[in-house]
Design brief:
15% of the residues lie in helices and 49% in strands. With 124 residues, the protein is of the alpha+beta class. The strands form two sheets. Strands 4, 5, 6, 8, 9 and 10 form a six-stranded antiparallel beta sheet that branches. Strands 1-2-3-7 form a four-stranded antiparallel beta sheet, with no helix packed on it. β8 and β9 form a beta hairpin. The longest helix has 19 residues.
């Protein structure tokens, strides 16, 4: 009985770590956090960063991408639910092992924003 309970608790804690853990790239160039997943590809040259928003309250959002020598806020878009796919042009080379990070910002009105995800990925 104790061994079964221990296994169940261990499995539950492991599941929580997966659900609520910090951003860790699944593979080079791919990572997610909260409502945003990004993929920068597998080389040190980044043409486009694909993004997927998978949750959040309906409303206006924008994505900020930043890496060494690159920092850009992309245009506003409306999210109404489901999976929303996007492509964000970067067209730059980065040193291998550099981090590219992103932030998903919801426009809350009155000049206020709330963060709905901030994944980072390893480039090249």
């Amino acid at each position: 009985m104790k061994r079964t309970l221990f296994k169940a608790v261990f499995a539950f804690v492991g599941m929580l770590a997966l659900v609520f853990g910090t951003t860790t790239p699944a593979s080079a160039g791919t990572g997610g956090n909260r409502c945003l997943w990004i993929n920068s590809g597998s080389s040190s040259y980044v043409g486009n960063v694909s993004s997927t928003q998978s949750c959040g309250t309906p409303g206006t959002y924008h994505i900020r991408l930043f890496a060494p020598g690159f920092d850009h806020n992309f245009g506003n878009f409306y999210y109404g639910g489901g999976n929303l796919y996007g492509s964000n042009p970067v067209n730059m080379s980065f040193p291998a092992g550099s981090n590219m990070c992103s932030q998903l910002w919801r426009h809350d009105g009155g000049g206020n924003y709330s963060n709905w995800g901030d994944p980072c990925v390893s480039i090249g």
